[in-house]
């Protein structure tokens, strides 16, 4: 019984040392824009016409994972109605993840982070641009590309402090009078978002 | 790995992430200064009509709209 177990263990360790059964998505090389096999077989059968363009040839190829750490990260900051930053090269971004403010530098480990309402700051040389995000996700890839997606993002100076205070008071009062779980959750969300906006304006 | 523990409070109350995210976005939009507030609210206006189909025929459609019916 134990001899078989040791043979199984030996088999799995030797398999993992020379080959992973499934490659990580970050190790996959950039996909070619056109499939060479398809083009060859097309040319054999129909040499006079050009091969048709596939959707892949219209897309910009995925940036390759460089072997050395690049000097800047490429940020794509998108909202449902607009693309705030599109492939902008910056030195650092600080994203408001649910686990706290997370600084992303070039060469950051690939991460998927859920964002809480808070401030996103983009650092480029000596310029810092700050946006207040309502919520969203930040995807950081191995090739130092950061995709930040949010539903609503505004520069901090567009927030009205009076309305924030009013909202905070209103939701604190709603939390006190809430009965069902759903009402309590909604009131709690209101308090979280308004206090985040408050600290964004003042901090 | 937390399987049942450590869910966010809104998930525990039965809310989905999309609902949570839309509520957060609406709250942020309502706290903007003019004219950005009116821009954001007009951008997010929706107007659509839904009709359920039973036995191959549509029933009376319901209209969901942010603009009052004139």
From TrEMBL, chain A:
The keyword Ion transport applies. Residues 74-145 form the ATP synthase F1 complex delta/epsilon subunit N-terminal domain. Signal peptide: none annotated. Gene3D superfamilies: ATP synthase delta/epsilon subunit, C-terminal domain, F0F1 ATP synthase delta/epsilon subunit, N-terminal. One of its GO terms (cellular component) is proton-transporting ATP synthase complex. One of its GO terms (molecular function) is proton-transporting ATP synthase activity, rotational mechanism. Its main location: mitochondrion. Keywords: ATP synthesis, CF(1), Hydrogen ion transport, Ion transport, Membrane, Mitochondrion, Mitochondrion inner membrane, Transit peptide, Transport. SUPFAM superfamilies: Epsilon subunit of F1F0-ATP synthase N-terminal domain. It is found in: Mitochondrion inner membrane. InterPro entries: ATP_synth_F1_dsu/esu, ATP_synth_F1_dsu/esu_N, ATPsynth_dsu/esu_N. It holds the Pfam family ATP-synt_DE_N. It comes from the Eukaryota. Mitochondrial membrane ATP synthase (F(1)F(0) ATP synthase or Complex V) produces ATP from ADP in the presence of a proton gradient across the membrane which is generated by electron transport complexes of the respiratory chain. F-type ATPases consist of two structural domains, F(1) - containing the extramembraneous catalytic core, and F(0) - containing the membrane proton channel, linked together by a central stalk and a peripheral stalk. During catalysis, ATP turnover in the catalytic domain of F(1) is coupled via a rotary mechanism of the central stalk subunits to proton translocation. Belongs to the ATPase epsilon chain family. F-type ATPases have 2 components, CF(1) - the catalytic core - and CF(0) - the membrane proton channel. CF(1) has five subunits: alpha(3), beta(3), gamma(1), delta(1), epsilon(1). CF(0) has three main subunits: a, b and c. This is ATP synthase subunit delta', mitochondrial. It comes from Durio zibethinus (Durian). The gene is LOC111276712.
UniProtKB/TrEMBL annotation, chain B:
It is found in: Mitochondrion inner membrane. GO terms for molecular function: proton-transporting ATP synthase activity, rotational mechanism. One of its GO terms (biological process) is proton motive force-driven mitochondrial ATP synthesis. Keywords: ATP synthesis, CF(1), Hydrogen ion transport, Ion transport, Membrane, Mitochondrion, Mitochondrion inner membrane, Transport. GO terms for cellular component: mitochondrial inner membrane; proton-transporting ATP synthase complex. InterPro entries: ATP_synth_F1_esu_mt, ATP_synth_F1_esu_sf_mt. It holds the Pfam family ATP-synt_Eps. Mitochondrial membrane ATP synthase (F(1)F(0) ATP synthase or Complex V) produces ATP from ADP in the presence of a proton gradient across the membrane which is generated by electron transport complexes of the respiratory chain. F-type ATPases consist of two structural domains, F(1) - containing the extramembraneous catalytic core, and F(0) - containing the membrane proton channel, linked together by a central stalk and a peripheral stalk. During catalysis, ATP synthesis in the catalytic domain of F(1) is coupled via a rotary mechanism of the central stalk subunits to proton translocation. PANTHER family: ATP SYNTHASE EPSILON CHAIN, MITOCHONDRIAL, ATP SYNTHASE SUBUNIT EPSILON, MITOCHONDRIAL. F-type ATPases have 2 components, CF(1) - the catalytic core - and CF(0) - the membrane proton channel. CF(1) has five subunits: alpha(3), beta(3), gamma(1), delta(1), epsilon(1). CF(0) has three main subunits: a, b and c. Belongs to the eukaryotic ATPase epsilon family. This is ATP synthase subunit epsilon, mitochondrial. The gene is LOC111316894.
């Amino acid at each position: 019984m134990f001899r078989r177990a040791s043979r199984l263990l030996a088999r799995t360790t030797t398999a993992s040392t020379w080959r992973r059964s499934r490659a990580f998505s970050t190790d996959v090389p950039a996909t070619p824009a056109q499939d060479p096999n398809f083009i060859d077989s097309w040319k054999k059968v129909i040499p006079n016409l050009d091969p048709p363009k596939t959707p892949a040839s219209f897309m910009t190829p995925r940036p390759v994972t460089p072997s050395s750490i690049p000097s800047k990260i490429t940020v794509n900051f998108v909202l449902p109605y607009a693309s705030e930053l599109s492939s902008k090269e910056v030195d650092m971004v600080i994203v408001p993840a649910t686990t706290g403010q997370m600084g992303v530098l070039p060469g950051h480990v690939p991460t998927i982070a859920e964002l809480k309402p808070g401030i996103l700051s983009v650092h480029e040389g000596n310029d810092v641009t700050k946006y207040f995000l309502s919520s969203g996700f930040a995807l950081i890839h191995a090739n130092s590309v950061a995709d930040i997606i949010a539903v609503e993002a505004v520069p901090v100076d567009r927030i009205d402090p009076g309305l924030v205070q009013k909202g905070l008071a209103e939701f604190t009062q709603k939390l006190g009078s809430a009965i069902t779980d759903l009402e309590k959750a909604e009131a709690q969300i209101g308090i979280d978002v308004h206090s985040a906006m408050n600290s964004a304006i003042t901090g | 790995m937390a399987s049942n523990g450590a869910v966010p409070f809104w998930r525990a109350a039965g809310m989905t992430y999309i609902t949570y995210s839309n509520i957060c976005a609406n709250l942020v939009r309502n706290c903007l200064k003019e004219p950005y507030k009116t821009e954001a609210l007009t951008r997010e206006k929706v107007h659509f009509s839904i009709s359920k189909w039973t036995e191959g025929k549509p029933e009376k459609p319901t209209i969901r709209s942010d603009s009052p019916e004139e």
